[in-house]
Amino acid sequence: MRLTVFSDYSLRLMMFAASHEERLVTIEEVAQTFGISRSHLMKVANLLTRSGFLKAVRGRSGGLSLIRPIDSIRLGDIVRATEPDFAVVECFGSSNACRITPNCRLKGILGSALRAFLAELDAHSLRDLVLRPTDFGIPQLSN
Where in the chain are the domains? Predict the structure, then answer.
């Protein structure tokens, strides 16, 4: 299984915001820090705001901040909010046309693996990913 780039960027944005809890962070500085598309990151921030992970403050001195304490934000919740689906193989999806589905044992094994994957993410909060601001490897932009 591979997470989408959208989920990857979501986790990076959340890590960055958690590492800078004392202030608002901007899309520009996160995009620059990770070398990723500003426009794509805006879509990520929009979804994370709508999903209740981030608070957006508009205006000249605006930015993003976590809406909840980092200990209460489970990594599994972020991934569930950002992944379009968890159809690891065809038979997990609604348009399953696989001929061996009624007799296949793969779906059960992969289903167990997916549940274990999500359970592991649920066992960790955003606190487990927090880095010091200097750990991001480039000088931070000043507000």
Answer: 5-84+126-136
Express each pLDDT in 46-78 by its tens digit. 999 999 999 999 988 899 999 999 999 999 999
User: Among all chains, which residue has been given the structure tokens 């289903």?
Assistant: 111
Helix (H) and strand (E) counts in the chain: 5, 2
CATH 3.40.50.2000: does it fit domain 5-84+126-136?
A: no
Please report, for residues 65, 106, 114, the alpha-carbon distance to residue 78 in angstroms, rounded to integers and kept in the order given. 15, 27, 15
Cα separation, 47 vs 76, whole angstroms: 16
* For the chain, percent of residues with pLDDT exceeding 70: 93
Residue 20 token pair: 């800078």
Strand partners, 57: 63
129-132-134 Cα angle (round to 5) = 130
Q: Is the separation of the CB atoms in 128 and 71 below 8 Å?
A: no
